[in-house]
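A brief tutorial aside. Many learners find it easier to grasp structure tokens once they have seen a single protein encoded end to end. The record that follows does exactly this for MYO5B protein. Read the sequence first, then the structure, and try to relate runs of similar tokens to stretches of the chain.
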Amino acid sequence: PVLRLLEAQLQDQRREHEEEMEALRNQVDLMQEELEKQQQAFLQTLQLSPEVQVELGLQQEITRLTNENLDLKELLEKLEKDEKKLKKQLKIYMKKVQDFEASQTMVPVERRPHERNMQVAVQRKEKDFQGMLEYYKEDEPLLIRNLIT
């Protein structure tokens, strides 16, 4: 069983290697064809007059720059799209932070961590309780706004 497993692995590796070699051969063939085309174009260009050579060179440069500009435009559009997405996320997170801060103002004083130490030193005053929610009178507009929204 171990020998068969090793033979199977070896055959798989051999097959993968042969497929990779075939792909590389095809790639080399395509590169050779492209090189031959470029050499022929270069030889034809050399036979042309200097003015025509300059014109062809300029046309090739214009084509290259146009393609580069298109690539840069695509990149710019992608970055703008990402920027819009990130701005939307920022708005969502800002809203969550505001909601969290608003909910913290509705937490009773005894449960606020930053005010716990101050509460010990202050004597308790009589408070007006309305319903089951304890809040300061000055927090009432904020509470009402949060209940509505």
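Self-check: DSSP finds four helices and no strands in the chain. If you spotted this yourself, you are ready for the next section.
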